[in-house]
């Protein structure tokens, strides 16, 4: 009979490189075994939702950027779509195409950070650097278009702040050609590395039923083996015009829904995003991107909810308007926050080193968890 | 069992070698980092950094301050009196206001560019200057107004004098025909304050 020992409580974070921001995890340990994990939030709380009530609708956009600051374009798109739904604005075709290109580039950039830091957490330092080189190229494209590298304020309600730079299409096509072999390189370097597989396969298995019960969305849900992507299942913008596949976890090296599956779904998603970008760059029409911008954003009274597929999962905005210039209420449904709730369930009974792998594989951004 | 053990060992060695080959190839790719203070990246023309205000063109309309989500722009204006020559903007608009205060607090500014778009004379712009850190936060408060404090006082005084003269004239005009009516002198006062 094993000796009954007292449980140890260990605080991981908030200043810990592997918690991806200021997240504090309270681990209940028995030796190396994790009995329970309790995430503590609120270290990055900035009163986003309350603060929006004091802002006009366009002024909220710079704050929206700061939710998931690794995928600011996607947040802006969701907010813009929500306000456009409320105001019944039809945006020009060219705007839709540019938005899709930007958001898919942003998805690649966000996944590159997710994959790079995931490898970094587990001990692979090199892929992190290579991922950041590629991400840098995407950020340069964004900088060329709107002048900012991370917090863009580019997608506005009813249009865009700038038209594309004359060089953008050429540079974006060059990037697509440049990046394609790099996905294969990442696979050889990290995905199929035996040490990496040993650390991630069969670790933190998230069964499909649990994933649905916890309302997990995004790559973490698809890693558990279900084809659920809002771009296909509830198409917004012009995603129904493009041909792309939705990757799901297949349990290649272990059970379906383990850390490796969640990781690999992101890798394949980057390839699919490249396909979308290629098609969009070919089909993009000419036009004026500022023609549908309203002079004053003053939506009618009412409530609206719209959701999009962000790199991290399903992001939704619920806006209550009382017909004035400021929103009466803005509620965010953040994917990172919802995905974080499953951490305790996943970490039960695993080793303390696996907590890092599991946390990295569900890919959270604290800016969005705390808001 | 033993076979599996050796297969695992082999794949462990092999996949690491595959990775090493990639890192070895990257040894011969050109470096992507730059020696920052000595070498600087060339910023694109749309880059958004420190704001600049061309005060010759500013008409003091306050639209940039209203668009700012962090309220980092502070503008105060005084109306010009007849005879004052405030000047013209470069696109030919005649200015009617003295801009006595135009402060931008770059400690607050989030470089969102929302202030640039509503400007009717395109006098507030994003520049590509990004090296303006300070040891004291107060030094980040930039004052763009061109008037000296003495000039500001002068403009304020002359406008107040004009107002007082106008109010006195109106009061006298209103008081003359009906000297008995009590609420009559009140009314012009309200009007003058609205002006």
Core attributes:
heterodimer; A: 371 residues; alpha+beta; Cytochrome-c3 Hydrogenase, chain B; 3-stranded antiparallel sheet; 15 helices; B: 195 residues; Alpha-Beta Plaits; two-stranded antiparallel ribbon; 4 helices; 5 strands; rod-shaped; disordered C terminus
Could you explain the architecture of this structure?
The complex is a heterodimer of chains A (371) and B (195). Chain A is an alpha+beta fold and 371 residues long. Chain A has helices at residues 48-52, 57-65, 72-87, 93-122, 126-146, 168-191, 194-200, 208-213, 219-222, 230-233, 259-283, 335-340, 343-347, 352-362, 366-370, and strands spanning 8-12, 24-30, 33-40, 155-156, 159-160, 302-309, 314-321, 329-333. Chain A has one domain: Cytochrome-c3 Hydrogenase, chain B (Orthogonal Bundle), CATH 1.10.645.10. Chain A is built from 15 helices and eight strands. Chain A has a three-stranded antiparallel β-sheet. In chain A, strands 6-7-8 form a three-stranded antiparallel β-sheet. In chain A, strands 4-5 form a two-stranded antiparallel ribbon. The termini of chain A are far apart. Chain B is of the alpha+beta class. Chain B is 34% helix and 13% strand. Chain B contains four helices and five strands, in the order H-E-H-E-E-E-E-H-H. Chain B has a three-stranded antiparallel β-sheet. Chain B has a two-stranded antiparallel sheet with strand order 1-4. Chain B is rod-shaped and about 120 Å long.
């Amino acid at each position: 009979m094993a000796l009954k020992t007292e449980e140890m409580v260990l605080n991981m974070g908030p200043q810990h490189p592997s918690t991806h921001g200021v997240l504090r995890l309270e681990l209940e340990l028995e030796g190396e075994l994790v009995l329970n994990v309790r995430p503590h939030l609120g270290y990055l709380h900035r009163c986003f939702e309350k603060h929006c009530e004091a802002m006009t609708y366009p002024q909220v956009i710079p704050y929206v950027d700061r939710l998931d600051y690794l995928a600011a374009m996607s947040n802006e798109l969701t907010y813009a779509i929500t306000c456009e739904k409320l105001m019944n604005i039809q945006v020009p075709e060219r705007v839709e195409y540019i938005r899709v290109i930007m958001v898919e580039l942003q998805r690649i950039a966000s996944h590159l950070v997710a994959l790079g830091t995931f490898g970094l957490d587990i001990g692979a330092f090199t892929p992190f650097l290579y991922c950041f080189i590629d991400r840098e190229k995407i950020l340069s494209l964004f900088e060329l278009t709107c002048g900012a590298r991370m917090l863009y304020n580019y997608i506005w309600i009813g249009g865009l702040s700038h038209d594309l730079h004359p060089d953008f299409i050429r540079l974006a096509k060059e990037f697509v050609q440049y990046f394609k072999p790099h996905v294969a390189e990442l696979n050889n370097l990290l995905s199929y590395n035996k040490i990496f597989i040993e650390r991630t396969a069969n670790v933190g298995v998230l069964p499909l039923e649990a994933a649905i019960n916890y309302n997990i969305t995004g790559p973490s849900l698809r890693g558990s083996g279900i084809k659920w992507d809002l771009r296909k299942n509830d198409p917004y913008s012009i995603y129904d015009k493009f041909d792309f596949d939705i990757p799901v976890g297949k349990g290649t090296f272990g059970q379906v829904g383990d850390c490796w599956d969640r990781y690999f779904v992101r890798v394949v998603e980057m390839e699919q995003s490249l396909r979308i970008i290629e098609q969009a760059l070919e089909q993009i029409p000419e036009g004026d991107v500022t023609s549908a911008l309203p002079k004053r954003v003053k939506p009618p009274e009412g409530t609206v909810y719209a959701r999009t597929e962000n790199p991290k999962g399903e992001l939704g905005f619920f806006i209550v308007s009382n017909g004035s210039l400021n929103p009466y209420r803005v509620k965010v449904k953040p994917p990172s926050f919802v995905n974080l709730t499953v951490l305790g369930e996943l970490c039960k009974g695993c080793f303390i080193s696996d907590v890092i792998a599991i946390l990295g594989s569900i890919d959270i951004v604290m800016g969005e968890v705390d808001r | 069992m033993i076979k599996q053990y050796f297969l695992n060992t082999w794949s462990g060695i092999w996949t690491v070698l595959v990775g090493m080959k990639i890192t070895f190839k990257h040894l011969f790719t050109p470096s992507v980092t730059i020696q920052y203070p000595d070498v600087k990246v060339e910023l694109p023309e749309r880059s958004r950094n420190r704001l600049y205000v061309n005060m010759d063109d500013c008409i003091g309309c306050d639209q940039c301050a209203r668009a700012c989500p962090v309220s980092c722009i502070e503008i105060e204006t005084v109306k010009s009196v007849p005879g004052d020559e405030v000047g013209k903007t470069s696109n030919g608009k005649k200015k009617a206001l003295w801009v006595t205060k135009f402060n931008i607090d770059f400690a607050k500014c989030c470089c969102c560019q929302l202030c640039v778009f509503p400007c009717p004379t395109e006098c507030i712009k994003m520049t590509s200057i990004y090296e303006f850190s300070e040891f004291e936060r107060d030094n980040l408060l930039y004052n763009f107004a061109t008037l000296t404090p003495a000039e500001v006082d002068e403009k304020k005084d002359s406008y107040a004098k004009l107002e007082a003269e106008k109010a006195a004239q109106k009061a006298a005009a209103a008081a003359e025909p009906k000297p008995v009516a009590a609420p009559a002198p009140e009314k012009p006062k309200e009007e003058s304050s609205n002006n």
